[in-house]
């Protein structure tokens, strides 16, 4: 009896193996068909409505738009930067001219030279009325601070320009 049960088991195993082989062959064919359809749908250049090609085209268009906007913004900002630099250079030039005139003692509040006498009988040249040398020094300090701020702004603008040129 053990030989018949062994024979039955062998036949049953062969039948199961044959059924599994048929099912595996069916799954292989189905998988091959799916891959063929995927490759055809994504590589067919005549199919304009392909979702993958549509996404790639959209990405390229967005990239081109971004590049165009960035280049336009950089050009406009560079133009404005150069315009502001010229204005700043003009202000610095005017301040330097005023500084030179102040150092020579030729400028008071109205643009005329003022000669004042101190209590010791000395003549002092200065800006303004009866304030003596303090106003001259204060005015020079004020102009010096303004020139330093202008110089600082120029350096910032130059650094920004260098950064824009690197980009």
What this model shows, in words?
This protein has one domain (44-166): Helix Hairpins (Orthogonal Bundle), CATH 1.10.287. It has a two-stranded antiparallel ribbon. Strand 1 and strand 2 form a beta hairpin. 77% of the residues lie in helices and 5% in strands. Helix 2 packs antiparallel against helix 3. The protein has helices spanning 2-43, 51-103, 133-166, and strands at residues 114-117, 123-126. The protein is built from three helices and two strands, in the order H-H-E-E-H. The protein is mainly alpha-helical. Residues 109-131 are annotated as: Disordered. Keywords: Coiled coil. Residues 140-167 form a coiled coil.
Structural class: mainly alpha
What percent of residues are in strands?
under 5%
Q: Which geometry do the CA atoms define?
A: rod-shaped
Poorly predicted segments = 107-132
Total E-strand runs: 2
Tally of structural domains:
1
Instruction: Tell me the radius of gyration.
Output: 44 Å
Helix content: over 70%
Features:
single chain, about 170 residues, mainly alpha, Helix Hairpins, two-stranded antiparallel sheet, 3 helices, rod-shaped
SSE topology:
Elements lengths: L1 H42 L7 H53 L10 E4 L5 E4 L6 H34 L1
Antiparallel strand pairs: 1-2
Short synopsis of the structure:
By secondary structure, this protein is mainly α. The chain has helices at residues 2-43, 51-103, 133-166; strands at residues 114-117, 123-126.
């Amino acid at each position: 009896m053990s030989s018949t049960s062994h024979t039955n088991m062998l036949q049953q195993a062969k039948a199961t193996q044959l059924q599994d082989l048929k099912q595996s062959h069916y799954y292989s064919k189905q998988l091959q068909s799916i891959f063929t359809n995927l490759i055809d749908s994504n590589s067919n250049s005549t199919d304009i409505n392909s979702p993958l090609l549509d996404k790639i085209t959209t990405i390229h268009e967005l990239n081109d738009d971004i590049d165009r906007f960035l280049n336009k913004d950089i050009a406009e900002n560079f133009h404005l930067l150069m315009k502001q630099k010229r204005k700043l250079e003009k202000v610095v030039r005017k301040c330097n001219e005023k500084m030179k005139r102040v150092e020579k003692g030729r400028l008071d509040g109205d643009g005329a030279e003022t000669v004042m006498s101190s209590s010791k009988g000395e003549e002092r040249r200065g800006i303004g009325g009866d304030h003596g040398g303090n106003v001259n020094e204060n005015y020079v300090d004020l102009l010096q601070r303004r020139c330093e701020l202008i110089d600082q702004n120029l350096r910032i603008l130059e650094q920004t320009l260098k950064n824009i040129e690197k980009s």
